[in-house]
Specification:
The structure holds 2 protein chains of 2 kinds. Chain A is an alpha/beta fold. Chain A is built from 13 helices and 16 strands. The longest helix of chain B has 34 residues. Chain B is globular. The chains are: A alpha/beta, B alpha+beta.
Chain lengths: 373, 392
C-alpha cells in the first residue's frame, strides 16, 4: 500500500512536469507557425516596441574598467560606455534626462558571458568594450553599430623592467579569460618569434592580485583599460609603464543581436549622431538654443527640426523607429562625443587618455560622423 | 501485458501487478516525453539563433596560449588544447585523491587517538576545513599563500637545487636517460628476487617459527640488485636540477601557484571529509573485535593493522568513493584562480569559437567518463575486500 502511494506521487509529479513543459512550449510553437518560414530573423515585435512597452532599456555593461564602466565607491556604475546606454534610453523614450531604474537598467556582465547573454536576450544592447570582429558578427549573430572607441591592445609592465615588448621573450603575461586579447597575445608573440607563458585569470581584480604579487611580468589588455587600471592601482603596484607598441586593432562598438534592423539602426544612428554633434559643434549646453534656432541645415537635420531657409523650409524625416527629434534628447542627456570623452577618459580625468585615433577626422583622427539628411 | 491480464482474475484496473507495470510504463513514457521536450526546446533555441550542433570547431587552430601542462603551442588544434586541459584536470585529480587519502587516513585515526592534544588538533582540522566553502579555500591558498611567496628575483634557494618563489616552487626531479631500459629490467629482477626470498622466509617461519623479516629481505634484495643495475647500465636516471632564469625556472619539477593552490586546497578539503569517514568506519567495527584483539595480546598498532582497519575499510569504501568523485568534480573550480583545467580551457574555447552547448556537453561527458572510471575501480576494490570476509 505504501509503495503504491509513493509511485502515485512520483507519477503525479512527472505528469505535472510534462504538463509544465508542454505549456511552456506552446507559445513558442505558435510563434514559429505564425512566422511561416522559421529561422533566426523572425521575431514577434520589434525590439524598440518591446523596450517601450516594457518601459525600461536593459544594457549589458562592464563594472570593472575605470573610465568606461566602473562601479564607484558609492555603488554607481559610471563611465564612457554607460553614457551611450543613457543615450539609447534618451532616444527610445524621448527623455532628456533618463533615470537609472526608471528608463534604463545596467546589467554587469563578464567578458565570457557577454555574447551568450545578448543572444539569450538578457539585455537589449551590449555596451561593454566589445571588439567588432568578423566571427562575432557572423557566427555569433551579433550586429555591431558605429565604433564608439578605437582601441588597441597594449602591454603594461612595472617601470624599468623592460624597454619594449621585444625584451619580453619567455615572460609570464597576465591576461583576462575569454577575450580577443588572449588570441592577439598568442599571435603577436608568435609573429615576433617570442616565447611567453600566459597566466589566464577571470577578471581584472584577480590579475591585479597576481600582478602585484609578481606572479606575472606583463599585463596585456586594451590600451584604454590599461590606462584606467594604471590610474586606479599604481599606488598598490608601484610605477607602471604602458608600451607604445600595440598588438592589435580593437574597434569597440555597441552591439545588438542580429535580426532586428530597426533597433540596430537606432543604436547605430544615436552613436553616429553623438559623433556628428561634436563635428557640428552642438553640445549639451547649446542644444536647446540650436533646437529653437539652428545654425545650419545639418544641425537642424541632426536635431530633427525644420530649417527656415530664405526661400523654403527644409525638414528631414529620418524614418527611424524613434521620434525624429531623438538627438535633442540624446545630446541633452549626455552631450556630444567630445563631452563624453572628456568627462570620463579625457586628459583631465584620472585616465588621462589623449584623443589619438578617436579625434574627429577633421582633427587628424578617424572618428567620422555620417551625415544626417 | 495481455499475458498478465489473462493469468489473473480481478479486473485489470484493480490488479495490483498490472497497475504496477502500468505505472512503470507511464513513468518511462513520461520520462521520454520530458527528454524529448527538452531536446526540442534546445533545437528550437539553436534554430532561433541560426545555429546547429556541430563539433567541427574542434579541428580548427586553437590560437590561444595555455599556461601549463603537456607541450602545446597556439598552432595546435582546438581539440589538442582541450586535451591539454583534460590532462591538467587529471593531474590535479590523481595527485589530489592520493594526498587526500593519506592525510584523511592519518587525521581520521588521530581523531580517535588517546592523546588529548592529537585528538583535539585533528578535530579542529576537520571542523575548520570541512565547514568552510571550498571556493574560498582555493582562493585563499592561491592569493594568501602561494602568491605571497617571494618574487622570482628574491626566490628562496634551498642549497641551490630547489627554489621557492611565487612563479613556481621548483624541485629537482629524476629524468630518464639512455640505459634506463636496462636498469628497468634490473629493477624488475630485483622485485622478482625479493618475492622469491620473501616466500622462502615465509616457509622458514612456518617450519621453524623463527621471525620471517619478509619485508626487510625483500627490500634488501631489491636495493642490492637495483644498485648493481644502476652502476652497470651507466647512470640511467639523472636528477634534473631546476635553474633560475629571469622569468621562471628551467628544468626540475615546477609547482605553479595555481596548480599548488588547487591541489592543496582540494586535498585538504576532501581529507577532512575522509577523516570523518575513517573515524566513523573505525567506530562502526564492533567493540568486541578490538577487545578480542587486545585479549590476544596484540599491540595498539597491530590491533589497527590486522583487526580494525581491514574491517573498517569495507565500511569506508563506498562513502570514500563519493569523496573522490567530489574532488574530481571540484577541480572545475580551477577557473577561479586561472589554472588551465578542462573547464577553464572550455570556456576559452567557447569564447573564441562559440558553440557553448556542444562544448559544455563535451565537458560534461569528459567528467562523466572520469567519475564513472573512479566508481568502477572503487567498486572492484569494494568487491575485492567484501569477498574476503562474509558479504554483508
Amino acid at each position: 500500500m505504501r509503495r503504491r502511494m509513493s509511485s502515485v506521487v512520483v507519477l503525479a509529479a512527472v505528469l505535472g512536469l510534462v504538463a509544465a513543459a508542454c505549456t511552456r512550449e506552446q507559445p513558442q510553437g505558435q510563434g514559429g507557425g505564425g512566422g511561416g518560414g522559421g529561422g533566426a530573423e523572425q521575431q514577434q515585435a520589434s525590439v524598440v516596441q518591446e523596450i517601450q512597452d516594457r518601459g525600461i532599456l536593459r544594457c549589458g555593461v562592464n563594472e570593472t574598467v575605470p573610465g568606461f564602466g566602473f562601479e564607484t565607491a558609492e555603488g554607481q556604475i559610471e563611465g564612457f560606455d554607460i553614457d551611450f546606454c543613457i543615450a539609447f534610453a534618451a532616444a527610445v523614450f524621448g527623455e532628456p534626462s533618463p533615470q537609472l531604474g526608471t528608463h534604463y537598467e545596467l546589467i554587469p556582465v563578464d567578458a565570457e558571458q557577454r555574447l551568450a547573454e545578448l543572444q539569450a536576450g538578457t539585455y537589449d544592447v551590449l555596451v561593454r568594450n566589445t571588439t567588432w570582429t568578423s566571427s562575432r558578427d557572423g557566427a555569433e549573430r551579433i550586429n555591431f553599430a558605429h565604433v564608439n572607441f578605437y582601441d588597441a591592445q597594449g602591454m603594461m609592465v612595472r617601470e624599468g623592467e623592460f624597454a619594449s615588448i621585444d625584451e619580453m621573450d619567455g615572460a609570464r603575461i597576465c591576461v583576462t579569460a575569454g577575450t580577443t586579447t588572449e588570441l592577439n597575445l598568442a599571435d603577436y608573440f608568435q609573429a615576433q618569434g617570442l616565447d611567453f607563458t600566459p597566466v589566464v585569470l577571470e577578471d581584472n581584480d584577480q590579475i591585479l592580485q597576481a600582478f602585484t604579487a609578481g606572479r606575472c611580468d606583463g599585463w596585456t589588455s586594451d590600451l584604454s583599460q590599461l590606462a584606467g587600471l594604471r590610474a586606479q592601482f599604481e599606488q598598490e603596484t608601484g610605477p607602471l609603464t604602458i608600451f607604445e607598441d600595440v598588438m592589435s586593432k580593437e574597434p569597440l562598438a555597441p552591439a545588438v543581436l542580429d535580426g532586428d534592423q530597426e533597433w540596430f539602426d537606432v543604436v547605430n544612428w544615436v552613436t553616429n549622431g553623438i559623433i556628428l554633434a561634436e563635428e557640428l559643434g552642438v553640445t549639451s549646453e547649446n542644444v536647446e538654443q540650436q533646437v529653437n534656432n539652428p545654425d545650419n541645415p545639418q544641425i537642424a537635420a541632426l536635431l530633427g527640426v525644420p530649417f527656415e531657409a530664405e526661400t523654403e523650409t527644409i525638414s528631414v524625416d529620418h524614418g527611424l523607429a524613434v521620434e525624429n527629434d531623438f538627438m535633442q534628447h540624446v545630446l541633452a542627456a549626455v552631450g556630444n562625443y567630445g563631452e563624453i570623452f572628456d568627462r570620463h577618459i579625457g586628459p583631465d580625468t584620472d585616465l588621462g587618455l589623449e584623443r589619438g585615433l578617436n579625434a574627429l577626422w577633421i582633427d587628424g583622427g578617424i572618428q567620422y560622423g555620417m551625415p544626417f539628411r | 501485458m495481455s499475458a498478465v491480464a489473462r493469468s489473473v482474475r480481478p479486473p485489470l484496473w484493480r490488479n495490483v501487478r498490472a497497475l504496477r507495470i502500468a505505472g512503470q510504463v507511464v513513468f518511462v513514457v513520461a520520462l521520454l516525453l520530458v527528454g524529448r521536450e527538452m531536446f526540442l526546446n534546445l533545437e528550437y533555441g539553436l534554430a532561433q539563433r541560426a545555429r546547429d550542433l556541430s563539433l567541427d570547431f574542434f579541428g580548427t587552430r586553437a590560437g590561444f596560449g595555455i599556461s601549463e601542462g603537456i607541450t602545446y603551442s597556439p598552432n595546435d588544434t582546438t581539440r589538442f588544447a582541450y586535451i591539454v586541459g583534460v590532462m591538467n584536470t587529471l593531474r590535479v585529480a590523481v595527485f589530489g585523491v592520493m594526498l587526500a587519502s593519506v592525510v584523511g587516513l592519518i587525521m581520521g585515526v588521530a581523531r580517535l587517538s588517546s592523546n588529548w592534544l592529537v585528538r583535539r588538533i585533528a578535530q579542529a582540522y576537520v571542523d575548520f576545513f570541512r565547514n568552510t566553502p571550498i571556493l574560498i579555500q582555493i582562493i585563499f591558498w592561491w592569493a594568501a599563500v602561494f602568491l605571497a611567496l617571494p618574487t622570482i628575483t628574491e626566490a628562496i634557494s634551498i642549497g641551490g637545487v630547489a627554489f621557492i618563489s611565487n612563479r613556481a616552487v621548483a624541485i629537482p626531479w629524476p629524468r630518464i636517460q639512455e640505459g634506463a631500459g636496462v636498469w628497468g629490467l634490473f629493477l624488475l629482477g630485483g622485485v622478482l628476487l625479493g618475492i622469491v626470498l620473501a616466500r622462502w622466509r615465509t616457509r622458514v617461519n612456518e617450519a621453524t617459527g623463527k621471525p620471517h623479516y619478509r619485508v626487510l629481505w625483500f627490500l634488501a634484495a631489491f636495493l642490492v640488485v637495483g644498485a648493481v643495475g644502476f652502476v652497470i647500465s651507466g647512470d640511467p636516471v639523472m636528477m634534473d636540477v631546476p635553474e633560475p632564469g629571469r622569468f621562471g625556472f628551467f628544468g626540475g619539477f615546477q609547482l605553479t601557484p595555481e596548480f599548488g593552490a588547487l591541489l592543496v586546497a582540494l586535498a585538504i578539503y576532501t581529507s577532512a571529509f575522509i577523516a570523518e569517514i575513517v573515524r566513523g568506519s573505525i567506530q562502526a567495527v564492533e567493540k568486541g573485535q578490538k577487545e578480542a584483539a587486545e585479549a590476544l595480546g596484540l599491540t595498539r598498532v597491530q590491533q589497527l593493522r590486522f583487526v580494525i582497519l581491514p574491517q573498517a575499510l569495507r565500511i569506508a569504501i563506498p562513502p570514500v568513493n563519493s569523496q573522490y568523485l567530489n574532488l574530481t568534480k571540484n577541480t572545475s573550480l580551477a577557473i577561479a584562480i586561472g589554472y588551465p583545467d578542462l573547464m577553464s580551457v572550455s570556456t576559452t574555447i567557447i569564447n573564441q569559437r562559440g558553440h557553448e552547448t556542444e562544448m559544455l556537453l563535451v565537458a560534461m561527458a569528459t567528467f562523466l567518463i572520469m567519475t564513472l572510471t573512479i566508481s568502477f575501480v572503487m567498486n572492484l576494490l569494494n568487491r575485492a575486500v567484501t569477498t574476503k570476509g562474509q558479504r554483508r
